[in-house]
Amino acid sequence: MLAAVRRSGSVLRAASVANMAARAQPSSNMAAFRKTLAESKHVVVLTGAGVSAESGVPTFRGAGGWWRRYQAENLATPGAFREQPSLVWEFYHYRRHLVSATNPNKAHQAIAALQARLAAAGRRCRVITQNIDGLHQRAGSSHVLELHGALFKTRCTRCGDVRENWDDPICPALAGTGAPEPNAPAAHIPESELPRCQAAGCGGLLRPHVVWFGESLDPDVLEQAHTELESCDLCLVVGTSSVVYPAAMFAPMVAERGVPVAEFNLEPTPKTGEFGYHFAGQCGDTLPEALAP
Ligand code: BJW
Ligand code: ZN
């Protein structure tokens, strides 16, 4: 079935609709979830922007998803970068600066503690995140699969060189730019003064090493994610609106195998009806309770 899903999104959609119709309302029985967790041998935790919200990192959709007069997701496109590289770099400079000043929250910590506890018991727990903020790793999680790239990595648009970069600002011209207020003026930095490639003799324009809309995810990361999803016996979906593909179909794929899936979110999502559990609330509250030893 999963191989078919990879080949055809429509197979998945048809199966999901049938599954939704067949399922009862998801349970919010914490004791039942904790029993399932206690019996599981291979847990996958799929996270989205909501897991970092309590650290002060804005989500993409909803009220927090604006930067100046732009919806964040409209700046996360190759077209936006082609047309206004200065504006897009300002947006990422703002986020790099903001994330540098934040810390992992109780949700990141609960996930990292679960991973450590299961590993010590010879059980497996893997984090698959759509986030680029690195907060899972800073909380102590290992083996984190970053589906949409990393905020503190750059990629050269000319030679493809990828490297870590924690400089703030990443280049002198971005210093003091990136203010998020609706009326903040654009910096209009010339391309020659935006971040440039340091690989020998290149000097090409750098871009954030992230996955924008319409771009393919790293095939190795995707393959590893599928391997985890196909073999896990419990899946947690934390703080994602489940509207961006391919990640949006990961947990439904797991549920389709009859494996328990638990969603932790402030509100229901388009996929909630496909899952066995839904825990409403801030994941900084719900996850520590759900994952406590
Ligand atoms: C809390 C909380 C708290 C808050 N506690 N909860 C199939 C069907 C239709 C379209 C497509 C398809 N396959 C591909 C597409 C096209 C496209 C897509 O999905 N479009 C849809 C929007 C319709 N996908 C792509 O283009 C992907 N590429 C791809 O598939 O390539 C092949 C292909 C291309 C085109 C056609 C077909 C195939 C690439 C997607 C890349 C997404 N990139 C971004 C930016 C990354 C870089 C950056 O960060 O700057 O990734 S967009 C943005 O959305 C970001 C996020 O990772 C992603 C998901 O958002 P997320 O994490 O869910 O955040 P929010 O804000 O949406 O939700 C937060 C949730 O948390 C909410 O539910 C809150 O309630 C909750 N919450 N606080 C618990 N305290
Ligand atoms: Zn280069």
Structural features, described:
- The chain is an alpha/beta fold.
- The chain is 37% helix and 17% strand.
- It contains twelve helices and eleven strands.
- Strand 6 and strand 7 form a beta hairpin.
- Helix 8 runs parallel beside helix 12 (283-291).
- The chain is elongated.
- The two termini are 34 Å apart.
- Residues 1-22 have low confidence and may be disordered.
- The chain binds ligand BJW and zinc ion.
- Zinc ion (ZN) binds at residues 156, 158-159, 161, 197, 199, 202, 204.
Helical amount among residues, as a percent range? 25-40%
Distance between the termini: 34 Å
Which overall shape is indicated by the principal axes computed on the Cα atoms? elongated
Lateral arrangement of strands in the main beta sheet: 5-4-1-9-10-11
Which structural class matches the secondary elements? alpha/beta
Order of helices and strands: HHHEHEEHHHHEHEEEEHEHEEH
Radius of gyration (Å): 20 Å
The number of helices is 12
Strand percentage lies at 15-25%
The counted number of beta strands is: 11
Low-confidence stretches: 1-22
Main beta sheet strand tally, sense and closure: 6 strands, parallel
Average predicted confidence as pLDDT: 93
Bound small molecules, which ones?
A: ligand BJW, zinc ion
